[in-house]
Amino acid sequence: MIDQILGWAATIIFSAMMIPQIIKTLKTKSVDNVSLALFIMFLIGNIIAICYAYLIEQKPLIIKYLLAIGTTIFYLVVYFKTKYKK
């Protein structure tokens, strides 16, 4: 039971970790101090991890990585729209 609670808590926190940066970028309309490499590496890491989750057939991990990939892609869209809007 505790393992499930910890797993889902980690899923929620890791999936939501991009939200403060998304909000800040949307409010300030600036990506000046954002590391694009961080987000790209995070995306690549999650793509590799989701492949692993599929191989070991772990649905909670698959959901976690899908959410992380989705929020990262969303942020990258916000990043590029903000950067090239000027």
What does this molecule look like?
The protein is an all-alpha fold and 86 residues long. Helix 1 packs parallel to helix 4.
List keywords for this structure.
86 residues; mainly alpha; Monooxygenase
Concise account of the structure shown:
The chain is mainly α and 86 residues long. 81% of the residues lie in helices and 0% in strands.
Topology:
Layout: H1 2-16, H2 19-28, H3 36-55, H4 59-83
Helix pairs in contact: 1-4, 2-4, 3-4
Query: What gyration radius follows from the Cα positions, in whole Å?
Result: 15 Å
Helices and strands: which structural class?
mainly alpha
Low-confidence stretches: none
Mind telling me the CATH class?
Answer: Mainly Alpha
Instruction: Give a count of the beta strands, DSSP E runs of length 2 or more.
Output: 0
Give the strand content.
under 5%
Largest sheet: none
Give the total of domains: 1
The number of helical segments is: 4
Query: What is the CATH topology?
Result: Monooxygenase
The CATH architecture would be Up-down Bundle
Q: Could you tell me how far the N terminus lies from the C terminus, measured between alpha carbons in angstroms?
A: 51 Å
Determine the mean pLDDT: 89
Please provide the ordered H/E string of secondary-structure elements.
HHHH
